[in-house]
Amino acid sequence: MVAEHIEIESAASAARFAMSVDVEDYFQVWAFSDVIARASWDGFAPRVGDATRACLDLFDKRGASATFFVLGWVAERDPALVREIVSRGHELASHGYEHAKPTTQTPQEFREDVRRSKDILEDIAGVPVNGYRAAGFSIDGTTPWAHEILAEAGHRYSSSSHPISHDHYGDASVPQAPHRPVPNGDFIEAPVATTELFGRRVSCAGGGWFRASPYALSERLIARAARTLDGPVIFYFHPWELDVDQPRIECASRKSKLRHYLNLKSMPAKLDRLLARWPWGRVDAALGIGGAS
């Protein structure tokens, strides 16, 4: 089945640029999942609340709005943070309950995780949760059931694909543009941003790619994506990327520590510069979902 391509917005629209934040704490990232068990999470002092509020303040400063994909686990422990995200004009979306990749779950386990997180977020905030993002952008060809389950649960869209080749995530065979992966349905999969460089598809979606690259290169690639993508440029980052003083996980591998800690000190200033460069909005607005503006 070939996914149905959809038209979203013209390049001139403010909805051309969609900002997103994956709300998870520093000890919950996949880079450390082999050394930090989920059962031990409650033993860590949470830092995600303060880090997320730093994101909110930065968005206020630049007049930006965003979509916050929040872990259900985090929401249960900090409901005030969830309500503040909504009260400050941003979209509330789901990042699943416990940051498990669908590729490691059975369909039933995925269904239970999706529903649990959606119910928690909606009960706390009193708003519909239309969006979902899988941990590690891990909805791909090995999980053909995932989009149908998300649609059945009441989600309107997913932003769970990163159409590149990478050892940790991504699937270069999936479309770069928003598309409808569920036959005869309106559910949308909206990939994060990619473009071409020297004939090769590369990410310009944020995260570690943004921290590792010179700002000028990132800006050039995002501008190219805005000209060439048939849909919004969806960018993402994590609150812990603004948390310069976070505790270090010394038992992690050298590769994991390099990915996680690379250029954290420069991230706040780079992100501020990016927010000032383009008019960033919410993912639901960029996709024309739910009457968002």
Description:
The chain has one domain: TIM Barrel, CATH 3.20.20.370. The chain is 34% helix and 14% strand. It has ten helices and twelve strands. Helix 1 links the parallel strand 2 and strand 3. The model is unreliable at 8-14 (pLDDT under 50).
Give a short synopsis of this structure.
With 293 residues, the chain is an alpha/beta fold.
Which word captures the global form? globular
The count of DSSP E runs of length 2 or more, i.e. the number of strands, is 12
Uncertain residue segments: 8-14
Per CATH, the class reads Alpha Beta
CATH superfamily: Glycoside hydrolase/deacetylase
Proportion of strand residues: 5-15%
Q: Provide the helix percentage.
A: 25-40%
CATH topology: TIM Barrel
End-to-end CA span: 32 Å
Main pleated-sheet profile: 5 strands, parallel
Structural class: alpha/beta
Number of helical segments? 10
Taking all Cα atoms into account, the compactness measure Rg is 17 Å
CATH architecture: Alpha-Beta Barrel
Average residue-wise pLDDT: 92
Order of SSEs: EEHEHHEHEHEEEEEHHEHHEH
Number of domains: 1
